């Protein structure tokens, strides 16, 4: 099982290019199931979750051609419209294929989501919305089985709470439904907007993506298209925090700066200097000890839950006390126990972590519990005194493309070891 060995204390200097967004590429790949024509996607990050989704599509009957960062998917005949447990047990986004499979084939059998130990992602929101579209659904033996032999029918879908994957799943189902579907309390994330752009290129009629109300006018069929995945705002945010933490002078290239507004605001509040150095590139640097600054995770455009762990790692060394409040997931402070092994002073009370900044962290052997927790431990290792060993880095491989190589190129002393 691979580990990262990190020698802390080196500032990060130079430029890091951001990969395509995993959380955009996954629904884009699922959308390929909606047509028998080839769909070409570029800027696909070669991370573990993407490989799992590829296997899932091929299991269902699609063929995939890969070529240096691009992928062409042709789902000509879907003779196995299912997502078996053996394939998706390590991936939380398996429910994304539920909507497109039942819309295209009239039936789907999808294993309940697996992945990180950060709390429940209630698939009941997907299920309820698809039932409103006319699907008959039952859950048993760890699977969700959906049937709509006469096709789906447009309706009003009101989400009780904002759900990104739920919005994406229903969006994909609704494009082939008869009539109009209106989605209220829809997620506004850039990844949802990117999916809508792809679907419209494929012939869908979607209006309002990026707002809380999305209208979908169903069409009879979709066709092939070409699409480039947006930049990964979570990867970009992770490296912005890394640059600030290490007192480096780092440029984050090939990103979308406006997707990072909430994080940039907090980094500036903490005392870091963040500037746009050119279109699509942000520079970050900091001097001296930064100040404590509270955050509360929220749906976009608020502070992303996927950056909470990394930001909390930064606050362990801030001057003062910061309050980190997690509103999206109920079990997303498991990294605090490992940070405490490195000398952090953190107390968790329910959905809030109270972080009293310390002068230094010290290297230790730590264990990653989920994807973003892994990133927080890597960041802590970059600034800790001595050597840090991060175990179970397969978690980080699910969402970051060769993070150790990118960090090493800008001065980090980090290596992958067995």
Question: Layout of helices and strands, plus pairs?
Answer:
Layout: E1 3-7, E2 13-17, H1 22-31, E3 38-42, H2 48-60, E4 63-67, E5 70-74, E6 82-83, H3 85-88, H4 98-105, E7 107-111, H5 124-132, E8 136-140, E9 143-147, E10 156-158, H6 164-174, E11 180-184, H7 190-201, E12 205-207, E13 213-217, E14 225-228, H8 233-245, E15 249-253, H9 261-270, E16 273-278, E17 281-285, E18 295-296, H10 308-315, E19 321-325, H11 335-341, E20 345-349, E21 352-356, E22 365-367, H12 371-383, E23 387-391, H13 394-397, H14 403-409, E24 413-417
Parallel strand pairs: 2-15, 3-14, 6-7, 10-11, 18-19, 22-23
Antiparallel strand pairs: 1-23, 1-24, 3-5, 4-5, 7-9, 8-9, 11-13, 12-13, 15-17, 16-17, 19-21, 20-21
Helix pairs in contact: 1-2, 1-7, 4-6, 5-6, 6-7, 8-12, 10-12
